[in-house]
Design goal:
Structural class: mainly alpha
Distance between the termini: 46 Å
Order of helices and strands: HHHEEEH
Oligomer: single chain
Number of helices: 4
Strand content: 5-15%
């Protein structure tokens, strides 16, 4: 049996992190999970072309899913920081880099690492 390649490990980790955020936001329906799978398939080609980009793949998959959700359902994830004004989505920073985080551009704050949105939304492990 062949060990899982580092590239496949990065893709599996990205999938798990984005799924954790979808579950935290209670939007992990089957059709939404399929958006994650579509992104992972597309990013597999990308990471094969540029193996050094493996640390960036979680942020890219999160952005892909966020973009697909915007087209089909609306903004996700909504900012849990700003209590007033129009609801707005969090952004991924860095757009292309390691250690991606969900940030509120309007308040200028990091909300949570990709995969840890549950703590920011009041899920398990959240401090209140």
């Amino acid at each position: 049996m062949n060990p899982i390649s580092p590239l496949e490990q990065a893709l599996h980790a990205a999938r798990a992190l984005v799924l954790a955020d979808l579950v935290a936001g209670e939007v992990a329906e089957a059709d939404v999970v399929s958006l994650v799978e579509e992104s992972v398939v597309q990013r597999r080609w990308w990471i094969e072309q540029w193996p050094d980009g493996a640390p960036f793949v979680a942020g890219l998959v999160a952005q892909d899913v966020q973009d697909a959700l915007l087209e089909r359902y609306g903004r996700w994830p909504l900012c849990p920081v700003c209590g007033s004004g129009d609801p707005h989505a969090l952004d991924i920073e860095p757009e292309l880099g390691p250690d991606p985080h969900w940030v509120c551009s309007e308040a200028g704050v990091k909300v949570a690492a990709v995969g840890s949105l549950g703590t920011a939304l009041g899920g398990p492990g959240a401090s209140s």
